[in-house]
Amino acid sequence: MLSHASQYAIRAILYLAQNSSSEDKLSAVTIANELEAPKPFLAKLLRQLASNNLVTSTKGPYGGFHLSEQDKQKRLWDVVVCIDGGHKFSECFIGLPQCSGKNPCPFHNIVVPFRERLASSFKQKNIQELIETMEIDKTLISLKGLDI
Which residues pair with 75 in a beta bridge? Predict the structure, then answer.
């Protein structure tokens, strides 16, 4: 449902929330290496997030990216809309352009309730809340360095 761009953007924001501060900014290269993401692609996404005030960016020799306390109050929905637009949660599951309640595809009635719950969760949960949940649940945003 989410594009690769949104997936990388969300992972980058979560990584920043856990590993950066106004004193300890991270470069796009560092984030890309840690998340095993394509460096130029992730750098472009981070610039887009910064220009939409979802991450904080500082230029110069001590520059880089971090999440301010204000950034951490942004919603996951804001990230998805910034990268993909809100339409990702209304597209047909199998890509039919005319799929709707009036003209449903075979999966419409299965997918719509799930999609609505997911969109609602993305609209309600902010970055800080997700980070707190991740710490409690011990969930990961990168598998780098793990023996799997």
Answer: 126
Helix (H) or strand (E) holding 118, with range, is helix 108-124
Closest-CA residue to 14 (of 145, 125, 146): 125
Residue 92's nearest CA partner among 117, 70, 110, 66 is 110
More confident call, 61 vs 145 = 61
> Domain segments of the chain: what residues?
4-137
* Domain 4-137 class, CATH top level: mainly alpha
pLDDT, tens digit, 9 for 90 and up, residues 33-42: 999 999 999 9
User: End-to-end CA distance of the chain, in Å?
Assistant: 26
